[in-house]
């Protein structure tokens, strides 16, 4: 029962299409613009940095919150926390990539996965967000972003206290 609850709630949280919703607020169907993807990279290209960064952060935090929620439910039902967190992360990313609200056509899940992973490595979360915003989104497609490629290594994040 706990596993289904974790999966279902995490999927629903992950299926919130922030890129689509923010674009609709501006009167844009993001699926018809740019690459046609509802993710942060396409929103950034079509609507600008402010909106692209906002979508990235919302997607990032839905991944983080999903794993946190899964852990809380697991603690309540006294089940394995690690397995609950993994199920929550997978379900949230699945919800992002295949949201029921948009005919199962969503984003790539990069920011959501980064948020889910940062729950485990919370001190690196700041570097992941900084890496995505400073290095990845404005300059190259999301799938080729690497912290080595853009110079955002842990040494560069030392001023942010995220080693």
Write up this protein:
The structure is a single chain. This protein has helices spanning 2-14, 18-25, 40-47, 49-77, 81-97, 110-120, 125-136, 147-150. It has one domain (2-160). The protein starts with a helix and ends in a 13-residue tail after the last helix. The chain is mainly α and 163 residues long. The model is unreliable at 143-163 (pLDDT under 50). Helix 4 crosses helix 6 (110-120), helix 5 runs antiparallel to helix 6 (110-120) and helix 6 (110-120) packs antiparallel against helix 7. It is built from eight helices and no strands. It is elongated.
Topology:
Blueprint: H1 2-14, H2 18-25, H3 40-47, H4 49-77, H5 81-97, H6 110-120, H7 125-136, H8 147-150
Helix pairs in contact: 1-4, 1-5, 2-4, 3-4, 4-5, 4-6, 5-6, 6-7
Essential attributes:
elongated; 163 residues; single chain; 8 helices
Briefly characterize the structure.
The protein has 163 residues and is mostly helical. The protein has helices spanning 2-14, 18-25, 40-47, 49-77, 81-97, 110-120, 125-136, 147-150. The protein has one domain.
How would you describe the shape? elongated
Q: What are the secondary-structure elements, in order, as H or E?
A: HHHHHHHH
- In terms of structural class, how would the helical and strand content be classed? mainly alpha
DSSP strand content: under 5%
Kindly report the average pLDDT value. Answer: 81
Radius of gyration: 16 Å
Q: What count of helical segments does DSSP give?
A: 8
Helix fraction, binned, reads 55-70%
Uncertain runs are 143-163
Largest sheet: none
Instruction: Count the domains.
Output: 1
CA-to-CA gap between the ends? 38 Å
Number of strands: 0
């Amino acid at each position: 029962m706990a596993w289904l609850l974790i999966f279902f709630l995490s999927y629903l949280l992950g299926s919130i299409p922030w890129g689509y919703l923010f674009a609709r607020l501006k009167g844009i169907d993001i699926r018809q613009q740019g690459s046609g993807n509802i993710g942060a990279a396409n929103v950034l290209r079509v609507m600008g940095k402010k909106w692209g960064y906002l979508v990235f952060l919302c997607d990032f935090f839905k991944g983080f919150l999903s794993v946190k929620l899964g852990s809380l439910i697991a603690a309540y039902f006294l089940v394995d926390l690690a397995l609950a967190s993994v199920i929550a992360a997978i379900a949230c990313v699945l919800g992002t990539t295949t949201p029921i609200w948009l005919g199962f056509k969503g984003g790539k899940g990069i920011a959501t996965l980064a948020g889910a992973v940062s729950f485990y490595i919370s001190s690196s979360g700041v570097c992941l967000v900084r890496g995505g915003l400073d290095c990845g989104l404005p300059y190259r497609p999301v799938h080729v972003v690497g912290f080595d490629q853009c110079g955002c290594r842990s040494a560069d994040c030392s001023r942010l206290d995220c080693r």
